[in-house]
Amino acid sequence: MEQVINAIVLGSCYCLFALGLSLTWGTLNVLNLAHGAVFMFSAFTCYLITQRLNAHIPLWVLAIIAMAVGAILELALDVGVFRPIRKRAKTLRDAELAMLIASIGAATIPVTIAQQVTVDSPFSITSTAISTTEFHFGGVYVTTIEIVIVAVTLAATTALALWLQRTRNGRALRALAVDTGTSGLMGISQSRLSALALVFSGASAGIAGVFLAIFLDSLTPESGQDLLLKAFAAVVIGGVGSVWGTLVGAMILAGGETLVSATTSGTWTDAVSFALIIIILLVMPSGLFRRLRVDRT
Amino acid sequence: MNIWYEAHATLFQTTAIYVLLALSFQVVLKSGIFSFASVGAFGVGAYTAANLATRGVPIIVTLLIVVVAMTAGGYLLAIPLMHLRGLYLGMVTFAIDEILVVVATNGGKITGGAVGLFGVPLEITTLGLGLVAVIGVLLVSQLERHSVGRAIEVLRGDEQLARSVGVEVGNYRKLIFALSAALGGVAGALNTVNFSTVTPGSFGFTLIVAGLTMAIVGGIGSWRGAVLGAIFVAWFPAVSSALGGYRSIVYGVLVILVVAYEPDGLLGIIRWVIRGGRGQLARRRSAVPAPAGAAPATPPGASPAASADGSLASASELGRRGHDATS
Amino acid sequence: MTPLLDVTDAKVHFGGVRAVDGVSIQLQDGALHGLVGPNGSGKSTLLAALSRMIDLTDGRLSFKGHDYQRDSAPAVARMGIGRTFQAVRVMSSRSVLENVMLGADAGVFGPGIVGNWLLPWRTRRHERRCREMAMAAIERLELTGMENHLVGTLSYGTQRRVEIARAVAAQPAVLLFDEPTAGMNRAERDEVAEVMRTLQAGGLAQVLVEHDMQMITDVCDHVWVMNFGKLIAEGKPEAVVTDPAVQEAYLGKRGEEDVNP
Predict the structure, then answer these.
(1) pLDDT digit string (tens) for B267-290?
(2) B26 lies in a domain?
(3) How far is Cα C226 from Cα C45, in angstroms, rounded to an integer?
(4) What is the fold of C81-168?
(5) Where are the domains of chain C?
(6) B280 contacts chain C (CB < 8 A)
(7) Which of A42, A156, C133, C137 is the S-S candidate for A206 at Cβ 3.0 to 4.6 Å?
(8) Which residues of B touch A98 (CB under 8 A)?
(9) pLDDT in tens, A216-251
(10) What are the boundaries of each domain within chain A?
């Protein structure tokens, strides 16, 4: 039962991280491989702050800082890297490949900085600032932080889903995925939309960073890269472009991993995400939920 | 001169191996196949070579085995995978590579587990590496000529068009995928017998990123780009050692700049320089790609200057940009 | 006399949509037939089926007596059925000659990737033959002197001619045209019509899918009219135009087809 709680919390973190990836990929055709670096760097910034200030900083302050850092970083990515590429590329496919590579290049910046500062040793955010009250549910212990993580995830997922469906900006963003001309016709500039998407993406990466830093108790500058593939698995399982799908996918992934690490020696855990990716893409390429985009070439 | 060479022998060796790796990426990317499977092949080739070399198998035989196995395996693997397009194929092959890393980490005696295998007999010279790299270049360069070159260029941008002119697209894609695997496998095998070790960390995400960068930054339009990219990635750390740990940032920024501003990579930049910057700019502006929409617009007039220096009778030899604008 | 192209009861159904619903037509050697119909009539789908870009749900396609409805599109192209596309599709960063040689490749059995490596002499021979056929097509389409021009720098009408040269280079027996004059002015359309007449004089059988009835009347010996996936009329252009069934099919859609820009 303890494991189930773990899986749920882990899955929530995965989901938060994956939401950003799913959003940019599903609507902007950008597979942002710098997302992991942003996640890590946001957590890293919080780590630096807690270290340097040596004071008790409430969780919600850290969360806001992380979200801000993440949002700023990804916005910079959009303006400085993705937009010039999109402007110059001749075809969509060329643009995608170029943005992919460029995001890899961009990722080296935060990762290298973190590597230099931490001298490649792990860092974490100790939860001294957060009261760890434990609750008992039928003999199981659940800490405050775990509840917060799950609650935030549910809130963020719901908010994003509603935003995409109900608001004008959200619908325009969804329209972008199908046809780049439509949202222009709706009177909303594409650059504003991509900025919005990346701000959200960065913010969600940031908060996921803080949460995972606390929950896993140890992050390295490379942690973000590992997480990318898992996020990809979550998105693919659920179906690109489906917000709830990402949540479901993340939970399935976390559940699978927890199961594997509990029953085997633990070195096979990473293989779960990889195997899921292969299986889903070969057997059920559109994921569990219907895909947002009509044709994905 | 000799001393300098000796001091940098490792770099030359690495360059040769990187050339093969870069070619394995270039060859698939130019054809529109987003496959990173050659890195998985690198790993399989590397471990195979380690096991065979320690048992006294001569390198030639090992290479032959690797080539045959990777070609056959690659071809078979391509059958289910060719239905996937774009980034999806990329991610599946990425996942396959990572699973192979996990397998290698858990491989017990065959792979040496997380620690890997050491003390593999050195079976190749720098010259030998160079020779294999040249062979690789020769093979790939033939793919840019004649009917094969035309077929590959068209099937990348417009599959329907390719079919309508008799190009068996499925066949080509499988063969190219297999070739990419073979190149990757050979690169891996050579890496093991040259550096005497192989570990799970020697392939996987880092190598994918390296190979991808080599191919894209160098320019995927031609094997020349792959070679340029290989040299760039191999020599950059040495050339930029003054920057210390922060050189990765310079590297990353360079990658971004090249990718964003010169999609044809270093090769495109060099060509631009050779043709005399300005003239090229004028030619580019007038060479508007053929529109693919239902309401086509006439390109803004064929400028006389453009047609005049457009004598590219030997164009097929140059392997110009692999772009086809009609997609 | 065995028709060159024999279509028997062709059906193309997409789920509930019957794009082509039981069409039977024959094309004789050297004939120039038109295929018309209002939007959604299925004519483009039929063309796609004829060139094997899409599968038939039912029915038979026969070329020189050989049933080809299960052959692959590239095989059919090599067999002698060529086509052009509605929007010009060319390799704009390559020269006219290279583009046309791409078409010629279909007419010469090439060595493929492995052959390229192992049989260089055969490859050279193939390349020579390819070039000859391409130059012949370039001459036929009056593009001589432009071989080395980048296709991307040419006018739309010329690009269309390059595309036709490409299709012709393989010396096909049948050439399918999918709305070749879309977006062209009167002069350019006349150019294309002239090309088609020249090709017909050279013995090439052609199928022209078109919206421009003027052009159909100008060049075609015989016209098929489709509506809702079925063949509703066929015959000489003048007869078909006055056919009441045809006029009813086009009722309310006259404006588009009738316009002579």
Answers:
(1) 888 888 888 765 555 555 554 443
(2) yes
(3) 11
(4) Rossmann fold (3.40.50)
(5) 81-168
(6) no
(7) A42
(8) 216, 259-260, 263
(9) 878 888 888 888 888 988 998 888 778 888 999 999
(10) 2-221
